[in-house]
Write a structure and sequence with these properties.
By secondary structure, the chain is mainly alpha-helical. The protein has one domain. Helix content is about 70%, strand content about 0%. It has 3 helices and no strands. Helix 1 runs antiparallel to helix 2 and helix 2 runs antiparallel to helix 3.
């Protein structure tokens, strides 16, 4: 399994978890938790597009380049969404 596949699978599970967790979060934390879920959904969808672009390298090699500019752009976009989601998640924890 390529690292992009694993990242996509993890974010898919995170989206499911966040949707379920929303039922148990106090109302004051819900708006930011919903924003976290939106960022994770964006990551999931972006990564799915990247996975479908194949061929993306199956083995991790820090010296390797992606097979296309589009794949590299999608991975960068997913990374930016990840950073934004983590900032929002930190705010949820602080709010609670």
């Amino acid at each position: 399994m390529a690292i992009t596949d694993a990242w996509h699978d993890a974010r898919t599970q995170a989206v499911d978890f966040l949707q379920k967790a929303s039922d148990y979060i106090p109302i004051r934390g819900k708006p930011r938790l919903d924003e976290v879920a939106q960022w994770f959904t964006q990551m999931r969808d972006t990564l799915k597009t990247a996975v479908n672009l194949r061929p993306i390298l199956d083995e991790w090699d820090e010296r390797a380049l992606f097979q296309s500019d589009e794949a590299a752009s999608l991975i960068c976009a997913a990374g930016k969404a990840e950073l934004k989601s983590l900032d929002c998640l930190a705010e949820v924890v602080t709010t609670l």
